[in-house]
Amino acid sequence: MVEVTLWGSLSAVAGGKAKHEIEAKDIRELFRKLAEQYPGIEPWIDRGIAVAIDGTIYRDTWSKELPKDAEIFLLPRLAGG
């Protein structure tokens, strides 16, 4: 079980709840379980969500394992130039 914080607009998609405890071994499983619970998050996942694990941001690394005591934040991808 890991505790995940949904940051910014992502928490609104989850009914305004920012912190979630989810049983997931890697980022792929985390995204799948979040999409099952909150179907509105799936378009965000498709556009790209950055995953911060203990302060390191992972993008497109869905096989990254989730350590049990890690601090995990999901952030919408930032666009700009």
Automatic annotation (TrEMBL):
Pfam families on file: ThiS
SUPFAM superfamilies per record: MoaD/ThiS
InterPro entries: Beta-grasp_dom_sf, Mopterin_synth/thiamin_S_b, ThiS/MoaD-like
Record field: transmembrane: none
Alphabetical list of CDD domains matching this protein: Ubl_MoaD_like (cd17040)
Designated name of the protein: MoaD/ThiS family protein
Organism: Mesorhizobium vachelliae
Lineage, opening ranks: Bacteria, Pseudomonadati, Pseudomonadota, Alphaproteobacteria, Hyphomicrobiales
